Amino acid sequence: MATIISNRRVAEGIYVMHAKGRFEAKAGQFFMVRGWENYPLLSRPLSVYDQDEQGVKFLYKVAGEGTERLARMKAGDEVTLLGPLGNGFPAVHGRTALVGGGIGIAPLYYTARQLEQADLYLGFSAEVYEEHEFRSLRHPVEIDLGGIVLDRVDFDAYDTIFVCGPEPMLRAAQMKSAMSSGRANVYVSLENRMACGIGACLVCSVGCENGRKKACSDGPVFRAEEVVLA
Amino acid sequence: MATIISNRRVAEGIYVMHAKGRFEAKAGQFFMVRGWENYPLLSRPLSVYDQDEQGVKFLYKVAGEGTERLARMKAGDEVTLLGPLGNGFPAVHGRTALVGGGIGIAPLYYTARQLEQADLYLGFSAEVYEEHEFRSLRHPVEIDLGGIVLDRVDFDAYDTIFVCGPEPMLRAAQMKSAMSSGRANVYVSLENRMACGIGACLVCSVGCENGRKKACSDGPVFRAEEVVLA
Amino acid sequence: MIETTLDTVCRIGKVAFKNPVVMASGTFGFGKEYGKLYDLSKLGGISGKGVTLHPRPGNPGIRVYETPSGMLNSVGLENPGIRAFLDEECAFWERLDTVRIVNLGGGTVQDYVEGARLIDEDSTVREREGRQAVDMIELNISCPNVKAGGMAYGIKTSVAREVVREVRAATSLPLMVKLSPNAEDIADMAQMCEEEGAEAVSLINTLSGMKIDVRRRRSVFDNLYAGLSGPAVKPVALRMVHQVCKRVGIPVVGMGGISCAEDIIEFIMAGAEAVQVGTYNFVNWQAGAELAAGVERFMAEEGIRSLDEIRGIL
Amino acid sequence: MIETTLDTVCRIGKVAFKNPVVMASGTFGFGKEYGKLYDLSKLGGISGKGVTLHPRPGNPGIRVYETPSGMLNSVGLENPGIRAFLDEECAFWERLDTVRIVNLGGGTVQDYVEGARLIDEDSTVREREGRQAVDMIELNISCPNVKAGGMAYGIKTSVAREVVREVRAATSLPLMVKLSPNAEDIADMAQMCEEEGAEAVSLINTLSGMKIDVRRRRSVFDNLYAGLSGPAVKPVALRMVHQVCKRVGIPVVGMGGISCAEDIIEFIMAGAEAVQVGTYNFVNWQAGAELAAGVERFMAEEGIRSLDEIRGIL
Ligand SMILES: Cc1cc2nc3c(=O)[nH]c(=O)nc-3n(C[C@H](O)[C@H](O)[C@H](O)COP(=O)(O)OP(=O)(O)OC[C@H]3O[C@@H](n4cnc5c(N)ncnc54)[C@H](O)[C@@H]3O)c2cc1C
Ligand SMILES: Cc1cc2nc3c(=O)[nH]c(=O)nc-3n(C[C@H](O)[C@H](O)[C@H](O)COP(=O)(O)OP(=O)(O)OC[C@H]3O[C@@H](n4cnc5c(N)ncnc54)[C@H](O)[C@@H]3O)c2cc1C
Ligand SMILES: Cc1cc2nc3c(=O)[nH]c(=O)nc-3n(C[C@H](O)[C@H](O)[C@H](O)COP(=O)(O)O)c2cc1C
Ligand SMILES: Cc1cc2nc3c(=O)[nH]c(=O)nc-3n(C[C@H](O)[C@H](O)[C@H](O)COP(=O)(O)O)c2cc1C
Ligand code: FES
Ligand code: FES
């Protein structure tokens, strides 16, 4: 059980929760989160948005019953966290771009914070949030509102590109990667539905070039060319 | 939806909730209460503890998942109320005793408040609560802690006796009534499990001398000799 | 106005339901109680509390127990008997502007048949007098078969066939057979009903379930097992409705755990003509009216003008 | 100390489980992942992810969907094949101090039989070398029967009999047959298993269910139907376990929706020798250890010294 330090609304339906505890999460990892006992049944996977001496932060969007409950929680309430889980982003080299679409920006903040150089591309459909936080990292930040953020990224200009966002965006990134010079190592972070979160149940399984892998324990970050998106 | 005005703990596991709304509840009636959407499934029946210009009050004991959730609610939160339901206590005549065991005292307060004369007998197993409120009604109040409150009541001394409490207590009241002179009209308030609360589903049905009746809409108050307790 | 062109009418033979929302048997009494809370003419229909030839006291002991997202009930067909129903409740039904369905239970084939005949005769009289009260019979074959050692008719198709055939012969009212999910093969059962001339089938009745009181070391229910309903069973109900719709040509009325308009749409996409709503009445006493409105809202949002556009598309 | 005298041992033939808590197939991998989170020797046993003769990729598309107090899964027996299991996972099992059960799936009778034989042979070798890794086979007959048009073996007793008989003949390891709640008659099925020489039966596997995505107008699952598990199904599971326990003399391992120690006690009172816990692992990753402790706590509170005192008292 982790005590909630704060849980604040940062935009319409978007919240940041800060939960107490000493974790050693790496960028791109996630936790299985629940703020209730047996209902709803499954825990909700949330990426590490940030981590400090006090605990871990999640940036999340109210998408349904579970995140709605999380949004109603207050400082002092308890959440149950299992994690950090997954492999997170691999070590990078060279020029790096971090591309996030919507709530997919969540894992990029902590990633960017640890990189010496990174260009940030953040795409939003309706409202921009956490812009100030991202800008305070002193990396170049390009914000796209209502357009297609990937269009702003020149894949040939980077050695490493991380893409997080809805599945159509990940497919577009695959396509763009395939059609580029191939200089960049392109990675995507998957958000498959999960149950155990630790590699035991295979419900998050994803087709890969060499057979199936588990989005939770083999991912959630994969090389873009490696995964077959439905 | 009714807004909670206050919801305070008055003893270990015992709460008083005050919910806003204009109701015209009679003493002994109840509401079907829920402070959640679809889980848990059923609403919880709670007796009218008191009623004022602002709304209705419930005195309740945390017994399981539903009442636990109610106990966690705060002023400003919303509860859903269906009611007032049931027939409540009949009009009384003559000398009246109100006998409550444990949380069974809940419907007696509002009842006593409306009576010119009433002797109150309140039994508790572990801790006395709401004593001050009951005493402020200026009726004689006898408190029993850890004993058998019914033993204190001389059934032949009253014209009307209302008994509310756990089923063994109601059975004891039936027995005592049967063995008394029969001068008193003895009434018991049943707490059968309910689903609809309005007489449509028959899950609360109780065997009576003239066939079955519904605890919700024909009761919850019955003449003691009329009902067959399991 | 999009709303005015929405077609939510559902049909079973000549009976038209103004919308797909029918209140399920046993959860809605005969409608009087809920009728005090909202206007029943908003409903597609009502299936009344199950009635039997003779009055029945129902089961003793605890009759309801809540389970995760479901409930077990053991009412055991408490009812005043068909005659009392016809004499006392039907006058209220005469005045209802919604489809009125009598849910018929039984114990022996003879009871079922005689019950159907009584309802049929009463209906003939009322019709002649222009005050019809019953539009359809829903035959509940989940009742224990006295001859077959208490096993429900609803389990084996061969056992159920007799009761369906006999009841079919005993009434000219439209006949809908209500199937049990405890059936060995529910699609077979539905096919049998079609073969025997039923106008429709409805499913699912409650799933047989159990709850033990571990402190008292006995079943919570005097009757040992009880019937599970509510959102917990919806995935199973939907699957069975889909299977049955693939098998038969007659209309199917789907139910089991419905608690929002999208649930209703799921059943219709699975092939159901209409649906019934039971347990959710206890969660939300305005269920019927709200769900009927919710279906229209969904249709408007999705640009669906008639439910026929989506019925059975899976 | 009361605790030291508590007897929680459960037995299937010569196999002794230190407590009734066995992790259910498909929800616990082969134990490695949860083994990093807590000490697996606290468990009565583990049933591994279902394996088949040949490796299987499992089902495409979405594989899990949450339902009220339950979940639908459509993993579709993704597994590395029996050889890979024996070669790569079994070394880990050799070192486990808990009962290790291989869950065996198949497609044709021949696949089942050959699979059983491989496991049996491997077991003989390891036993000779004093490094046994498998204590029992759990035969999952819910797999689609290729010959019977994809209908699962688990539905009709007559169809299942062949596979049970052949697998029984193919191995001398203790054999437990895992029954499907979709069976036409689960008690019949269990009786058949007893007749064919199985040491035990386990039940229930998942209930066939459906979920439609109403906006996309298609099933959430590529495979159309999926398997329902979790607290939602517990009342049905408990009833079936009770029915089966009344029918057969061999031990019954009960499961379906268990999420607290009282749930386990219910299954034991219904007659189960032991239980399995599946979906609840996802709710509480320490489920196994906590439930095992919870059973002891319940026994101490209620003055029960051996589970035999309460087993099958209903
Ligand atoms: C590795 C990983 C990291 C994620 N990180 C974040 C994050 O940092 N911030 C954020 O807002 N969201 C994140 N998501 C998505 C988030 O998990 C879902 O939005 C959330 O589970 C929805 O739950 P709900 O109860 O609100 O919605 P419901 O629709 O009520 O959920 C019902 C069920 O579907 C599952 N589900 C629904 N949508 C998704 C989805 N998109 N991905 C996975 N499961 C889903 C839920 O877990 C639940 O079991 C992440 C997902 C994954 C897999
Ligand atoms: C007419 C009536 C008036 C009541 N008045 C009061 C009151 O004023 N104050 C108070 O504290 N309690 C009262 N009760 C009892 C109260 O309804 C239960 O304690 C409560 O429903 C328990 O719910 P739970 O979720 O906390 O417990 P759980 O045990 O989790 O409940 C599970 C299910 O069982 C039902 N249930 C459990 N115990 C009872 C019970 N004793 N009576 C009825 N249903 C039960 C619940 O409604 C629910 O459906 C009254 C009951 C009735 C029928
Ligand atoms: C309290 C209760 C009583 C019921 N009584 C009957 C009945 O008399 N006849 C019948 O055919 N079905 C009866 N049912 C079954 C329902 O009509 C319905 O088939 C079932 O509850 C599944 O739908 P639901 O999940 O929406 O409740 C009853 C259900 C409940 C909960
Ligand atoms: C994700 C998942 C995968 C499963 N895989 C298998 C399997 O491979 N073999 C099997 O016999 N049962 C399998 N099952 C069924 C479970 O072992 C168990 O019978 C069922 O889930 C009911 O128990 P529960 O409600 O405790 O989960 C699986 C269940 C789930 C949820
Ligand atoms: S969520 Fe269970 S294996 Fe990935
Ligand atoms: S609770 Fe439904 S009739 Fe009383």
UniProtKB/TrEMBL annotation, chains A, B:
The protein's matches in InterPro entries, at most eight in alphabetical order, are given as: Cyt_c3_hydrogenase_gsu, Dihydroorotate_DH_ele_sf, Dihydroorotate_DH_Fe-S-bd, FAD-bd_FR_type, FNR_nucleotide-bd, PyrK_electron_transfer, Riboflavin_synthase-like_b-brl
* PROSITE patterns listed in its UniProt record: FAD_FR
Look up the signal peptide feature and give its range.
none
Q: Which cofactor does it need?
A: [2Fe-2S] cluster
Residues covered by the FAD-binding FR-type domain: 1-91
| Keyword tags | 2Fe-2S, Electron transport, FAD, Flavoprotein, Iron, Iron-sulfur, Metal-binding, Transport
Matching entries from NCBIfam families are given as: PRK00054.1-3
| Family recorded in the similarity comment | Belongs to the PyrK family.
Name by which UniProt lists this protein: Dihydroorotate dehydrogenase electron transfer subunit
Q: Which organism is it from?
A: Saccharibacillus alkalitolerans
Source organism phylogeny: Bacteria, Bacillati, Bacillota, Bacilli, Bacillales
Automatic annotation (TrEMBL), chains C, D:
Q: State which pathway it belongs to.
A: Pyrimidine metabolism; UMP biosynthesis via de novo pathway
Q: Which residues take part in binding substrate?
A: K49, N73, S74, V75, G76, L77, N140, N205, T206
The record's Pfam families line, in alphabetical order, gives: DHO_dh
Q: Residue limits of the Dihydroorotate dehydrogenase catalytic domain?
A: 13-298
Annotated FMN binding sites: S25, K49, G50, N103, N140, K178, I204, G230, G256, G257, G278, T279
Q: What class of enzyme is it?
A: oxidoreductase
Catalysed reactions, as listed in the record: (S)-dihydroorotate + A = orotate + AH2
Which residues participate directly in catalysis? C143
Q: Where in the cell is it found?
A: Cytoplasm
Required co-factors: FMN
Cofactor binding mode and count: Binds 1 FMN per subunit.
Cite the EC number.
Answer: 1.3.-.-
Q: What is this protein called?
A: Dihydroorotate dehydrogenase
- Its gene name is pyrD
